Amino acid sequence: MNYSVGQVAGFAGVTVRTLHHYDDIGLLVPSERSHAGHRRYSDTDLDRLQQILFYRQLGFPLDEVAALLDDPDADPRAHLRRQHELLTARIEKLRKMAAAVEHAMEARTMGLNLTPEERFEVFGDNDPEQYAEEVEERWGDTDEYADSQRRTASYTKEDWKRIQAEAADWGERYGALMAADEPPAGEAAMTLAEEHRQHICTWFYECSYEIHRCLGEMYVSDERFKAFYDVLRPGLAEHLRDAIVANAARHTS
């Protein structure tokens, strides 16, 4: 049996463009070509694609995936077992860090209008005041901080739930974008970067493209922010930073 590129894309849940890219870089070269030159994939090719997608789900870069699959001495199953153990431990640690960092920028006022019961319901056992002093020290003299303080002071439990739901939905869609190997400078990534900026503008303060670029750098350089984004998908902080830069360039050039 052999299959067209469209059929394989449907089987695997990837785009045709992704398969073309894998072919171009030699990661997954189809075993056959039709008389018209169209790609035809064998069952062996599908097995290799499955292994590629396993590694990609674990956050491995494409060059490392190629090295692992093409190393005759490598044992992919043992390697995956080790990675699973390491990632499981790392994810648990990062989840705890991410839950607190998620609300750092608005920490000073996010609980002011909530009863203790409502505050626990919205934020669980994460202390929303954990980074309040640091936030005020770093940004307390800026117009953006003052604007955020003013806006969030009136937010209710339902407002905070909506903010969290919007952020969670955005995170899922950005993770899916990375799983499809969309480049940071591509239209899809830049669109989600712009949505990220608009979310800040809507709920907290007017986030200019210059400020957004600075935030993108902070997401990578600050271990806590990097942990928050990378727990959604490994490498997301850097990918988002690059998408923010590309999106800012297209709007300010």
From TrEMBL:
- Is DNA-binding one of the keywords UniProt gives this record? yes
TM ranges = none
Task: Give the residue range of the signal peptide.
Answer: none
List the InterPro entries hit by this protein, alphabetically.
Answer: DNA-bd_dom_put_sf, MerR-type_HTH_dom, MerR_fam, TipA-like_antibiotic-bd, TipAS_dom
Keywords, alphabetical: Activator, DNA-binding, Transcription, Transcription regulation
CDD domains to which the protein is assigned, alphabetical: HTH_TipAL-Mta
Residues in HTH merR-type domain copies: 2-71
Answer yes or no on keyword Transcription regulation.
Answer: yes
Tell me the PANTHER family matching this sequence: HTH-TYPE TRANSCRIPTIONAL ACTIVATOR MTA, REDOX-CYCLING DRUG-SENSING TRANSCRIPTIONAL ACTIVATOR SOXR
* Name listed for the protein in its UniProt record: MerR family transcriptional regulator
From which organism does this entry originate?
Streptomyces violaceochromogenes
